User: Fold this.
Amino acid sequence: MYKFYKGKGLVFFLLSVILVFTSLSTSTGAEVQKTKNLEIEELFNGKDGTLVIKNLKTDNIYVYNSERSQKRLTPESTFKVPNSLIGLETSAVRDEYEVKRWDGVTREFESWNRDHSLASAMRESAIWFYKDMARDIGVTKMQDYINQIGYGNGDISGGIDKFWLDSTLKISAMEQVDFIEDLVEENLPFKEKNQKTVKRMMIQDEQDQYTLHGKTGTRLSDMGLGWYVGFIDTEKDTWVFAMNLNGSGTEAKRITIETLRDMDIIKEGE
Assistant:
């Protein structure tokens, strides 16, 4: 009798192991199946870069250059998205309409050389506004929120008003997609109204069939790193994207838009 039950126990154990491995194999297969390669090399004109696009309804992920998609790089002006969230949450700015006065220093772009609100500074990518706001937020609160949202390597040691600009803070395209997804779903550790405000500030193109939200970023020291991150709401789906290349933010945006059109996410003629 003992041997009989011992034998049944062994059979049960072996069946359990087989079921576990089958489950893991099925799960891993599903993960692989949900990631698809983007064949868009010709759009990069020989430049190294990556693009990640995720459908939030199906969780399908489309990737060009998966190796680079995992590489952490400085976020440049795409950091204006979390910086805005933190600024609003800590009351460094009251709302998107609060104006900071221009200090009179002439900078690279004419559109920067005037007073700005949070919303207009996002739209024009006015770095001086965000440097000033980061100083008002302070190191302690800035580090705390960056840790909470798990933004890249979380390293702000490069200086409170410049750590995101060709400095110590770095993030990958895949991590940018995760961050934007949390923003879309309002799962970040910020008040719901502040997340809605920042998403509204990111709107770049609003049509009947879709609304495009995005933020570019360019390493101005050599124009050698460009970003475009954001999301697009269509009638049926929401898609999150993050793109970087050895070029400018303008190039990154152009390639992203072309790919969204090729995928019929932005339909031709709309």
